[in-house]
Amino acid sequence: METNLLDWILFLPLASAVICGLLFRQSGSVAGVISIGSAIVNSILALSLLTHLQAGDTIAWSREICRFGETSLTVGYSVDQYSALMLFVVTFVGAWIHLFSWGYMRDDSARGRYFAGLSLFMFSILGIVLANGLVMTFIFWELVGFCSYMLIAHYFDKDFAAAASKKAFIVNRIGDLGFILGIAACLSLYGTTDFDTLKVAVAAKPAPALVGFLLLGGFIGKSAQFPLHVWLTDAMAGPTPVSALIHAATMVAAGVFLMARIFFLLHPDVLQLCLWSGAAMAALAGLCALAQTDIKKSLAYSTLAHLGIMGAALGLGHPELALLHMAMHACFKATLFLGAGSIIHGCHHEQDMLQMGGLARKMPVTFATFLVASLSNCAVPFLAGWYSKDAILEAAHEHGVLVFALLSIAALATCLYSGRMIRLVFMGEARSEASTHAHESPWTMLLPLIVLGLGYSVFAGNYIGIPKASVSVLPAPMHFHFGAASIVGLGSLIFGFFGALWFYGRSKSDALRDASPALYGALERRWMDNLYDGYVTRVQQPLVDALAFIDLALINGIGGKILGAGIPAGLGALSRRLFHTGSARVNAAWFAIGALLITALLLGIL
Amino acid sequence: MPDPLFVFFAALTLGAAGLLVLSRNAVTSAMGMILALVGIAAEFFLLDAYFLGVLQVLVYAGAVMVLFLFIIMLLNTDKPETKYPWIKAAGGLAVFLFLSAGVVALILHSGALDKVAGPTPPELSNNPAEFATAAKAFGRLLYTKYMLPLQMAGLLLLLALVGVVNLSKDAKPNA
Amino acid sequence: MEHTTLAHHLLLAGLLFTAGLAGVIIRRNLLVVYMCLELMLAAATLALVAFSRFNNTMDGAILVFFVITVAAAEVAVGLALIVALYRRTGTVSSDQLNTLCD
């Protein structure tokens, strides 16, 4: 009965995607209704699954798809309370993003394709969540990659969008190479890729560090961890709801979820790497968010910082905290992105924060939800973000001072860029024509903001404790208690948030750029992109040129012209005269002769 | 020595086939084709397959060939193909002789014929599972043993119908 | 009838088939090529009926029924294709339809 429910959850978005994609490409309204309807039904189904699933229960079902000797590959479901929670977060946030898209994309000419893409995206991420093993995860993992490619490139006639989608796809491929090698390593070591059997096998024989490093590659690519984080900021080229979906509910969450799933496979060395790269990225990306004027890019760096925090939580040995933070981050980051979408929509597609200002009066609902989500982002106690971030900070405090310091910087940076964003966008005077004539968005866009922002961001933390199944997600009930983590959290909140509000009120343009252009430039500069570009132009291109020279000059020139020219050219000319005449009649004649010969062979005459 | 009627219709059919292949006028080719199909239908009659013979004349020589003639006239390609040099004609004849020699050699050489059937056809009986002449026997088998192929054939005809409608629409610039 | 054996019928069918095949190879008018293809199919049905009669079974004759059905569908689609081709290129000569080679 329960696998039946899972079937519905998984295949409803696929059905919606197929129907929208194949039948309603031209009529976007019908496609939108189908897609939104399926997403809403799906979230209700996921909620019923979450409330019915007892703690410690798992639903498992699998089916063999092929067998190579001793090794069999299976697809199937394996759902425990973590997956059920993840399922709910994905479908719930996803459903509201679908609804938001209705208003945001109202004037778009390719709405049918867009909604089909959204539904397909939901299908692929749900496949990852429900998967029973690495193979099925990988299949849907690649599907997520494809969907993100398709959605980021929604405005494919714009060069930057096409380039950004290509970049996201290629960078993910690099990580996925590690992932698929990791699957192969699992197969050769344990003969299985199913999570349950793998868990038993690993308990008997611990996995070597190599497997963990390889599988970590997939996480690094998909969840935009250092050094493969470069695609995430460019992915802002897609429509804003797509950014919300990618950053909040689906794509980056997939990596974190996978790591929590295969946590038992990860060697301590792998965790160390994950910890330090995550913590470092959290601190740096948070600061980089201060040097972005594009509101979506700034939010993208914020996402990078939070992903770093999740990576650090994994590295600290707390996959449940990483998952919790992912769930909390999903709700407030979705609100922030949808809020940004509402602002962009209201300001007639102006994305530069320096061109905005004073929007609080013109867009009160958007302002209120954005403010609440920002506060949740800054981990104000008892708002959603606080539950997870505080727990992670405390775990970092127990681990060591350096990690704690890095994560504290991240916390401070979070408050700084949140304050800056609020100050630049909503307060002061309008700094451009577009923001002077800004207008509030329609209700289909405001309702998701209210539900996700006011409802979810505020109450999610309390809510998480309610369903029976999710009780064990949190190690202990969260209460406010005074410790190192809360001191840092509150301190950074007060100094960072209000400091930023004050600091950025001093100048008409960006106050940091006025005060210290060098620092601003250093933060704005895209170090890793430059490094990759440098690698491609300085190392790869000369190497390729050299190889091309060898190929052309040596192999073609000497070997081809002198040694190999005679025989192949003669054969080629002969075959061109005999077979490749371009005449169907000659083909028919050869066909007849061949048929005669084969019949003669079969009869044993020849 | 075979039945004189068989010989007569075999000669007629082969002659008509020769007309179909060799005539440089498409309409003459079509006439040869009709004659050849009628000849084959006559061979069906000689083999006691009366229903199939009638079907052959109705569907093939009737409907299908009318369609061919119609298309020939529609496309107005009844001007003869350009004359080709005798060496090419000799080449065509060589192809025909070579292929027919091959086919005849295969048939005569295979030696399997005597095993699968006797020199004369067996007597007809009323058992419907055996070879029968009446359309009733076809109907019984079509709706019992060959139910699935029959449905498939119906589906195929439907698909052909849809395909032809789609093909014969005027191509839109961005279709 | 008494002395007409299966081999006679098969020889006739084989010769008809070969004539059709030769026509496919040497003719250039696509419509005639198409008629030659139909002749090959008809030759095959003749062989089927002969086998069916001499083995005293109905299966071959039924198969002929299906062959006629398929051939009718094939003619309809094929002629529609030829007409579409003619509209686009203005020719039905197989020698001029060699864009795949150039």
Explained architecture:
The complex is a heterotrimer of chains A (606), B (175) and C (102). Chain A has helices at residues 2-23, 28-52, 81-104, 111-130, 134-152, 159-190, 195-204, 209-222, 230-234, 240-249, 251-261, 268-288, 295-315, 319-346, 359-362, 364-377, 384-399, 401-426, 433-436, 443-464, 484-503, 511-515, 517-524, 527-563, 566-578, 584-603; strands at 59-68, 71-79. Chain A has 606 residues and is mainly alpha-helical. Chain A has a two-stranded antiparallel sheet. In chain A, helix 1 packs antiparallel against helix 2 (28-52) and helix 1 runs antiparallel to helix 4 (111-130). The longest helix of chain A is centred in the C-terminal third of the chain and has 37 residues, at 527-563. Chain A is globular. Chain B folds into two domains: 1-78, Four Helix Bundle (Hemerythrin (Met), subunit A) (Up-down Bundle), CATH 1.20.120; 131-175. Helix content of chain B is 71%, strand content 0%. Chain B has helices at residues 4-22, 26-46, 50-75, 86-110, 113-116, 135-142, 147-168. The longest helix of chain B is centred in the middle third of the chain and has 26 residues, at 50-75. The radius of gyration of chain B is 21 Å and the shape is globular. In chain B, 27% of the residues are buried. Chain C has a domain at 28-89: Orthogonal Bundle (Helix Hairpins), CATH 1.10.287. Chain C is 75% helix and 0% strand. Chain C has helices at 6-26, 30-54, 59-89. In chain C, helix 1 (6-26) runs antiparallel to helix 2 (30-54) and helix 2 (30-54) runs antiparallel to helix 3 (59-89).
The Rg value of chain B, from CA coordinates, equals 21 Å
The largest pleated sheet of chain C is described as: none
Task: List low-confidence stretches of chain B.
Answer: none
| Contiguous runs where pLDDT drops below 50 for at least 5 residues of chain C | none
**The CATH C-level class name of the largest domain in chain B:** Mainly Alpha
- As a percent range, the share of strand residues of chain B is under 5%
Instruction: Characterize the overall form of chain B.
Output: globular
* Helix/strand order of chain C, N-terminal first: HHH
